[in-house]
Amino acid sequence: MNISNLKNVFWHKHYIDKKLRIMRNQHNAFVLWFTGLSGSGKSTIAGFLEHLLYQKKINTYLLDGDNIRTGLCKDLSFNIADRQENIRRVAEVAKLMVDAGLLVLVTLISPYQKHRDQAKNIIGKKNFLEIFVNTPINICKERDPKNLYLKSLKGEINDFTGIQEEYESPDSPDYNIDGTESLDKISKKLLKFLYKRLIT
Ligand SMILES: Nc1ncnc2c1ncn2[C@@H]1O[C@H](COP(=O)(O)OS(=O)(=O)O)[C@@H](OP(=O)(O)O)[C@H]1O
Ligand SMILES: Nc1ncnc2c1ncn2[C@@H]1O[C@H](COP(=O)(O)OP(=O)(O)O)[C@@H](O)[C@H]1O
């Protein structure tokens, strides 16, 4: 980023702010950043959890990697620089959504700790929870609902996470999900973890 672009730009503080929105929503707003291998269960778990939260009248939005890559990030590839830019853009959007009073669920592979830390810095440490969907790669390969592991093993994809490209497990995630447990068990435990954090 060229800092000089911001020389003549001034932040405008608006009257309706996060504090007022949180008061009206009656729950806190922050980001749950789900990271894990392809096939680990990120989208399924976040979607299941969002359904439960909806029933409890929690205002949410789910930013899903595959979906975001059809619009906001459709110009980006899977090389390291583009993955970083993908994560940066999603972090900026998530930050706005937190300001809008939402509980934001982000599901991106986000394979590098450095990029996840950058997302945390953009969003703000107190509004960011790193959730590791910890599923062994052999199980992800067995699941392979989109045949992406198969394609990368056949050489049809050459930069697939976990095959040609690395996945760095989080150093110290805020929450660890055993991705081999049932969805029901995973989401009940997650709800319990979230409960006190959602209270205003
Ligand atoms: N080369 C390569 N590596 C990893 N993933 C690939 C690749 N090519 C396509 N896909 C599909 O893109 C989804 C991951 O996109 P993300 O935006 O989450 O990736 S990243 O955070 O920028 O690394 C990923 O979705 P999930 O399987 O849900 O994780 C795949 O469907
Ligand atoms: N806890 C779970 N137990 C069994 N299967 C699961 C579980 N979570 C996800 N799955 C299945 O695994 C596959 C990959 O899940 P998905 O949510 O698409 O992963 P990701 O978003 O990390 O790529 C899907 O077919 C999904 O139904």
TrEMBL record:
It comes from the Bacteria. Residues 29-178 form the APS kinase domain. CDD domains: APSK. One of its GO terms (biological process) is hydrogen sulfide biosynthetic process. Pathway: Sulfur metabolism; hydrogen sulfide biosynthesis; sulfite from sulfate: step 2/3. InterPro entries: APS, APS_kinase_dom, P-loop_NTPase. One of its GO terms (molecular function) is ATP binding. Its EC number is 2.7.1.25. This is Adenylyl-sulfate kinase. The gene is cysC.
